[in-house]
Write a structure and sequence with these properties.
The protein folds into four domains: 7-282, Aldolase class I (TIM Barrel); 297-326, no CATH class; 339-388, no CATH class; 395-510, Alpha-isopropylmalate synthase LeuA, regulatory domain (Double Stranded RNA Binding Domain, 2-Layer Sandwich), CATH 3.30.160. It is 40% helix and 19% strand. It has 17 helices and 14 strands. Helix 1 (26-39) runs parallel beside helix 2 (53-65), helix 14 (355-371) crosses helix 15 (377-388) and helix 16 runs parallel beside helix 17. It is globular. The chain binds 3-methyl-2-oxobutanoic acid (KIV) and zinc ion (ZN). Zinc ion is lined by residues 15, 171, 173, 206, 208, 238.
Length: 524
Amino acid sequence: MSKNKVLIFDTTLRDGEQCPGASMNLREKLAVARQLSRLKVDVIEAGFPVISEGDFTAVQTISKQIKNAQIAGLARCVNKDIDAAGAAVKPAGKRGRIHVFLATSKIHREHKLGKAQDQILKLAVDGVKRACKYVKDVEFSPEDGSRTEPDFLVEICRAVVKAGATTVNIPDTVGWAVPEQYGALIAHLHDNVSEFQTGKAIISVHCHNDLGLAVANSLAAVQAGARQVECTVNGIGERAGNAALEEIVMALQTRKDVFRGFSCGINSKEIVKASKLVARMSGLPVQRSKAIVGENAFAHSSGIHQDGILKKRETYEIMDPRKVGWGKTELPLTKHSGRAAVAARLKHLGFKLSPSDIAALFDHFKDIGDKKKFVYDEDLTALVEDILTMVPETWTLNYLNVSTGNQTVPTATVRLLKTNGGKSESEQDAGIGDGPVDAALKAIDRITHTTGKLMDYALRSVSQGKDALGEVSMKVDFGNGKLVAGRGASTDIIEASARAYLNAVNRHLDTGGAQTKKTKRGKP
Ligand code: KIV
Ligand code: ZN
């Protein structure tokens, strides 16, 4: 590996997924992992295997299916965690990595762990040694590293590298660092641990964005000697998120004059696709003015800027939008397009679907094609994502009729099909509400015996035109304090809302969520 190669370690599926309401099912995680593989990230942190069966299966499946990246599983410095991570990454063979972490800062040692420095040192070394029994590629993270005493951190780095770690990651767990000081800390470690100078081990950085400095801190660390950056697509993650992958990559590529000689192997043309996929799969929309991947990132509205751009693009544009995957879209499909044309377009968009998924998608495509003149790539992507986000459907929407107006009490009549052991029965009810969406969701609550509280609701148009598909994403609390994401798309926004809510109800039931006791239904 070249001395100045900066490895990109993507933790969208682990730290990103820790963002409340962002949890993804296996199919969604696989879709993201495939896109990360097209992006050519060096490491995919696929999950935290010990925390749930779902996480274990996701890490194991991604380890089997993704062939061009290291696959990492996270573990605390605890035997059962390390064993679970070792088993989950086993199918990756040499591409398996175990990422062990243990807090090292004074505040964590004293208040969280109740342990002294020498005890922490021993636990870290034992954890790394145990991980080395499973894989050659072991990473160690001293959690809250940026607030740990620098000389103790040097001691930790030396000890874990001696025990077999080939990457030592210095997390800014609480987003406390500022670039100059964080860069100085990384330089201090680089200067005092000989293995970081010889390349026997590398320094990694992992920055959170509580002060909006995650990217700046990561880049300062690269200049000070770090050779791996941990980041997430769209910067999603705990609290204010992690360093955004797209910003790190494009800063390295665009400011080669400053980051002289540094390179990363990312295929930047896949960035926008990755951003859109992660936004949909996680239910966390990207703000319009977000750098690189926001809708407005390359939109020039002022006349002076537009004039400048027309004369010479570089006057106001520091990056070519096509380099990150913005740009021309293909001719739209229509209801006359055949199955082969749809399948070919899906392939072009990078989706790998099974024949049964293509058949289901084609039926949905025909419905949409009947309702609108053109089916754009964005519409097709929304349909694919409907299929990917599907969970076993206890309830499906069969009929929806809404009566509303400024002098009418909004009323919705809903009929749902309930599938049970291959048989389906229909149930119908009505609801009244503050508006037609409220009425439809209340009718669904009455039929499914669930009571969801809408915590977040977003509607966006998937493509252009008055007949565009509307896509609703929402977060629902079914009373257990967990946020469940739901999404649905339709040319009718009330129907899209009902579909999104049903998607959340089905996810809630699929993960063992309870229905309220069946009682005689009262008035709507
Ligand atoms: O922020 C953090 O400290 C982490 C570690 C597990 C690396 O996510
Ligand atoms: Zn983190």
